[in-house]
Design a protein that fits this description.
Blueprint (H helix, E strand, L loop, with lengths): L1 H23 L1 H35 L2 H17 L4 H12 L3 H12 L4 H10 L5 H12 L5 H20 L19 H14 L4 H35 L2 H15 L7 H9 L1 H9 L6 H14 L1 H12 L7 H31 L17 H36 L1
Helix pairs in contact: 2-5, 2-10, 2-17, 3-4, 3-9, 4-5, 5-6, 6-8, 6-16, 7-8, 7-17, 8-14, 8-16, 10-15, 10-17, 11-12, 12-13, 13-14, 14-16
């Protein structure tokens, strides 16, 4: 009872301070809000919407069930999750946060995952997409194309390591379909696809409309979290709370021989990965290895902004958030360690190469590359895609409301 009352008091005071800060710092809050909005409608919305819509269709038509049957012999022994987790993992790697949570929650609603399996799966299927790592962080912030290789390698190896560690989570849970079906066949996979499609008997038009509605509603929620955490991060900086928390981190960094100037970027990254990565790249007193390790931790931890998005998605199911939060800490640590381990063998070797025939083509990752060009085109075309999609969403809602009144 006392803990409940204390939680109420803390939450009430925190929200009151936030509201008062918005009044005292209107200009700074507006700029932070614009920054979050720009990121959402230029990058996040147009990059995630196609993945969300197509994934809903694949689930509805039974394709994910088909893929799940075929991947069962791989995913079950390695991660102790059903084969459908392979689809979630692949889509999470390609599209980035919070796609893994979205698809995991969807499969849980479909009954293709137990709660423990869903908690294992969501812990390692949320990651930064390659476009963000190469286009925004490596080239945009550090102006160093080769750094993207080590950041991506550490990030995705850390992601894989988390999945292997989390396979032990939950103890001896149900062994799932592998106990019932010892041998995986194409015929069985097609049968599962057909039965899933028959079970979801919605017409194609309704299925497409539901996919658009569900996807845009999720992205609107994501946009709200991005904007509010952008403002919160700015408010914490203006109230010198970030600096105070940085003092605590400075002690840890000093023991690791890291510059104290990295403490504020680290704290900022704990709240929001983009700002934290950008601030880390601007610290002049740190070596590039130290900057890369901090950035790897920030990317692995994902930031409280992303974690709040995931918590909101998981709250609609019975999947618990605590395993996901623990996994984010693990991935941040793993990614930082992998950055250190592969620094000499990967990054320095690439940087020391002098022969053009042996060197990795910088044009593939640097300015003028597909990653950088795609990122820039997103910034230009993203708002138009977002406005067009929202217009379609409003049209679908209007038609359905009109039908409901008839």
């Amino acid at each position: 009872m006392f803990q409940s009352k204390l939680k109420t008091i803390i939450l009430s005071i925190s929200v009151t301070i936030l509201a008062a800060s918005l009044i005292f710092f209107p200009q700074e809050s507006l700029e932070a809000s614009r920054r979050g909005l720009n990121m959402w409608w230029k990058i996040v919305f147009p990059s995630l919407l196609p993945f969300f819509i197509v994934s809903e269709l694949l689930i509805g038509f039974g394709v994910v069930r088909f893929i799940g049957v075929l991947l069962e012999p791989l995913m079950r022994p390695l991660f102790r999750v059903p084969g459908a987790g392979g689809f979630v993992w692949a889509m999470g790697l390609a599209s980035g946060f919070p796609a893994g949570a979205k698809f995991t929650a969807r499969l849980r609603e479909e009954g293709q995952l137990t709660r423990i399996e869903a908690e294992r799966l969501v812990s390692f299927t949320n990651s930064s997409n390659p476009l963000f790592i190469f286009g925004a962080v490596a080239v945009g912030f550090f102006h160093n194309a080769k750094l993207g290789i080590i950041l991506a390698l550490a990030h995705y190896l850390g992601n894989l390591s988390v999945g292997i560690v989390m396979r032990f989570y939950g103890g001896k849970s149900s062994k799932g379909t592998m106990e019932k079906h010892k041998k995986v066949t194409i015929r069985w996979a097609f049968s599962a696809l057909h039965q899933t499609r028959l079970k979801d008997n919605r017409p194609i038009g309704q299925l497409l409309g539901d996919a658009v509605n569900s996807s845009i509603q999720t992205l609107l929620m994501v946009g709200g979290f991005i904007i509010i955490f952008s403002v919160i991060n700015k408010i914490l900086y203006l109230l010198h709370i970030t600096a105070a928390l940085g003092k605590v981190v400075e002690f840890l960094f000093s023991s690791l021989a890291f510059p104290e100037m990295l403490s504020i970027p680290f704290i900022s990254g704990i709240f929001e990965i983009t700002l934290g990565s950008q601030l880390t790249s601007s610290v002049q007193d740190a070596t590039l290895l130290q900057q890369a390790m901090i950035t790897s931790f920030i990317l692995g931890f994902s930031g409280l902004s992303v974690q709040a998005q995931v918590a909101s998605i998981l709250a609609q199911t019975d999947i618990r958030f605590q395993p996901f939060f623990f996994a984010r800490i693990l991935q941040g640590i793993f990614a930082s360690v992998f950055t250190l381990l592969f620094w000499n063998s990967v990054y320095l070797r690439l940087s020391d190469q002098e022969r053009p025939t042996n060197a990795l083509p910088v044009g593939f990752f640097g300015e003028g590359s597909w990653a950088y060009d795609t990122y820039q085109k997103m910034l230009e075309m993203g708002p138009l895609i977002t406005i067009f999609s929202l217009t379609i969403y409003i049209g679908i809602l209007f038609i359905r409301l009109k039908k409901a009144r008839i």
